[in-house]
């Protein structure tokens, strides 16, 4: 496991103003002093609790940079934990949105704004998710951190490039050419060669959440979308949709 890198100096951009941000405004789940930074999204408190920064994913090729950025923000600092619930994950780590002292911006938003993280899944609060997506978008437009690589945002029309990301969290953008349903699964196809090109899959079991959000998968045909998630190999590369928030309409905000 990677430990914090003390010799690296990381300059992080300023994010937001003095208003209390959405993620920081979630219910309080305790506090503590950070004893160690294990990697780009996990810290250990002096009382022994292990905390996982909720709602973000770290690019594996930039783990050292993300770890150094988090250490520069949080090591030896008192932090507050925020979230709808504080139930530890299966590894005993408490997921939380983390704020240093009484800062108005979460550590997640600061890492995203520096380009050292990507917005992940499991963010139940829509305002908090919008806040984190805005921070990521700012870093992407400024080409900070991981977004300095022009290929970091993958092109849905290049399945070979996406296939190299199997098992890794990835952000992909492109136009949906067709929407098809087979055996209880809806396919958003980004190419004509269904067995080779990139596709997004949606189980009919979660269609209720799409309806609640006012989205019909069929209405996405010929639309340009951005999708995020773990790339899987099913003939061609695919991302399986687990929640509505994985799909964005670029330029909609």
Order of helices and strands: EEEEHEEHEHEHEEEEHEEE
Shape: globular
β-strand amount: 25-35%
Look at the helices and sheets and give the structural class: alpha+beta
- Work out the helicity level: 10-25%
Contiguous helical run count? 5
> Could you describe the largest sheet, including whether it forms a barrel?
8 strands, mixed
Give Rg in angstroms: 19 Å
Give the distance, in angstroms, between the N- and C-terminal Cα atoms.
38 Å
DSSP strand tally: 15
| Average of per-residue pLDDT values | 90
Q: Are there runs of 5+ residues with pLDDT below 50, and where?
A: 1-12
Notes on the protein architecture:
The chain is α+β, with helices and mostly antiparallel strands and 253 residues long. Helices cover 19% and strands 31% of the residues. The chain has 5 helices and 15 strands. It has helices spanning 63-74, 107-113, 126-142, 159-163, 207-212, and strands at 28-39, 42-45, 50-53, 56-57, 78-82, 94-100, 118-119, 154-155, 169-175, 178-182, 185-189, 199-203, 224-234, 236-240, 247-248. Strands 8, 9, 10, 11, 12, 13, 14 and 15 form an 8-stranded mixed sheet that branches. Helix 2 (107-113) runs parallel beside helix 3 (126-142).
């Amino acid at each position: 496991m990677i430990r914090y890198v003390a010799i690296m100096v990381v300059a992080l951009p300023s994010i937001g103003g003095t208003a209390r941000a959405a993620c920081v405004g979630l219910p309080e789940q305790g506090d503590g002093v950070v004893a160690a930074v294990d990697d780009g999204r996990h810290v250990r408190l002096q009382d022994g609790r292990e905390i996982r920064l909720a709602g973000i994913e770290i690019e594996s090729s930039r783990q050292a940079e993300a770890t150094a950025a988090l250490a520069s923000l949080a090591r030896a600092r008192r932090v507050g934990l925020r979230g709808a619930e504080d139930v530890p994950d299966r590894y005993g780590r408490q997921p939380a949105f983390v704020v240093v002292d009484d800062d108005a911006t979460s550590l997640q938003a600061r890492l995203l704004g520096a380009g050292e993280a990507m917005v992940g899944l499991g963010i139940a609060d829509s305002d908090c998710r919008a806040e984190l997506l805005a921070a990521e978008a700012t870093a992407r437009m400024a080409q900070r951190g991981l977004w300095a690589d022009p290929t970091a945002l993958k092109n849905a029309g290049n399945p070979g490039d996406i296939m190299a990301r199997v098992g890794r969290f990835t952000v992909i953008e492109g136009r949906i050419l067709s929407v098809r349903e087979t055996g209880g699964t809806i396919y958003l196809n980004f190419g004509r060669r269904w067995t080779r090109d990139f596709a997004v899959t949606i189980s009919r079991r979660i269609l209720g959440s799409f309806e609640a959000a006012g989205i019909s998968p069929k209405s996405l045909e010929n639309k340009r979308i951005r999708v995020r998630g773990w790339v899987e190999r099913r003939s061609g590369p695919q991302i399986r949709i687990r929640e509505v928030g994985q799909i964005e309409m670029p330029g909609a905000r």
